Amino acid sequence: MHQRQGTRYAQVFAAVSMPMSELIKVRDELRAFAAERDWDQFHSPKNLASALAVEAAELLEPFQWLTEDQSRNLTEKQLAAVKNELADVQIYLIRLADKLDVDLLQAVRDKIVSNAEKYPVNEFKGSARKYSET
Amino acid sequence: MHQRQGTRYAQVFAAVSMPMSELIKVRDELRAFAAERDWDQFHSPKNLASALAVEAAELLEPFQWLTEDQSRNLTEKQLAAVKNELADVQIYLIRLADKLDVDLLQAVRDKIVSNAEKYPVNEFKGSARKYSET
Amino acid sequence: MHQRQGTRYAQVFAAVSMPMSELIKVRDELRAFAAERDWDQFHSPKNLASALAVEAAELLEPFQWLTEDQSRNLTEKQLAAVKNELADVQIYLIRLADKLDVDLLQAVRDKIVSNAEKYPVNEFKGSARKYSET
Amino acid sequence: MHQRQGTRYAQVFAAVSMPMSELIKVRDELRAFAAERDWDQFHSPKNLASALAVEAAELLEPFQWLTEDQSRNLTEKQLAAVKNELADVQIYLIRLADKLDVDLLQAVRDKIVSNAEKYPVNEFKGSARKYSET
Question: ipTM of this predicted complex?
């Protein structure tokens, strides 16, 4: 039955495959951006993974002293800063996936399918088990 | 002139806007996934930002002792692990953007336009200045 | 007046300097540990800084879905895991400082003195200003 | 035999226990610093763990685009920045351990003993096994 949940997600995703992916489009822009500046020499997967971790921490920074409720109600200034960091994380993520020749969207689809099998609704609904175990 | 570079990117992106975004599609799947399991109670922006930083570090982990060259030539086993972590980062990024009501792809486009203005090719081509300053 | 606060801390610290520092002792043990295993080849500052960030994220992981109150009341199992990660962060921090020839304890003292000048009690007492600005 | 290595470390550490620890001294200064400013309300273990991860990433940032060799030869300006971040990580680490009532130095000693048993010299000397497996 868990298999079937996974299958359902796989089918949904198959149905939305598109001729020209927007992530592929951004990937190509980022490739051109780096190439024009001769920055590929800095963009080893090791370095990009570091840069991604740094940006993810910068995204965490505005939230570190907020309560959970406050984090749901950011000021406009806070939100603008956060938006900027969200973009940085996404950009490095696309660059890193590109350098590793990974189809990022396909990796996400595979992971959702696998999560659907790992956390079946009937066992995990309303349960904090996944969260209390981590 | 930098303005013009930014403008060029803005136009390119405008040209590829699509009726149904693949990221929106994944966002909706992730919404349903969390809702079915009643997990939204855990998904405050503060918590999601933490989870994202944790996953970004897990993505960094396989690279931490590798040389840059080794990071360009992962074994299949290493790559499979990395692919899994790339997906986790992307998933939490989409969830966090969703909870903050941020259009992730638009934020990326805005950032690329702004980067194009900040790092004009003629000044930064072949220069490590950006990188040596950080 | 802020100067005086800083000075007070500087004096307190000077008073507790000891002939044989415990952190120096641990540093020497870690040096011997790496040397015996020929691991210094992996311990470039760049790699150690990555390892430290990875361990700091592993330390964050058990807290990511907890409420602040829950984080103040860990189970014994949670605490044991956290203790382990606290140690890992401290170990890599000592190793990194050693490789950079930095006196970690002196750096801490300098930072506390500088923080005392930056956040004078009369301006920051009971105020979340520092925290709401980040 | 691995046991004996662990035991050796345990004995070495026992021999250097001191009546007044320098880390305890710093811990007490940090306690007073927070209390004077009424900042304990922000310093839940969850928040401190986030702050620590953020600072660890700030420590990684100056290294992210450097080669390993460059990371061994920082400029004075780079080193000053790094020293500052090393201190921040150490400060939050001491605060977090304090809030969790963990003896940080003892946790480090326990971990070194356990690492000595886990990575016996005769099996790991000159081998990158630990590192290639991660």
Answer: 0.85
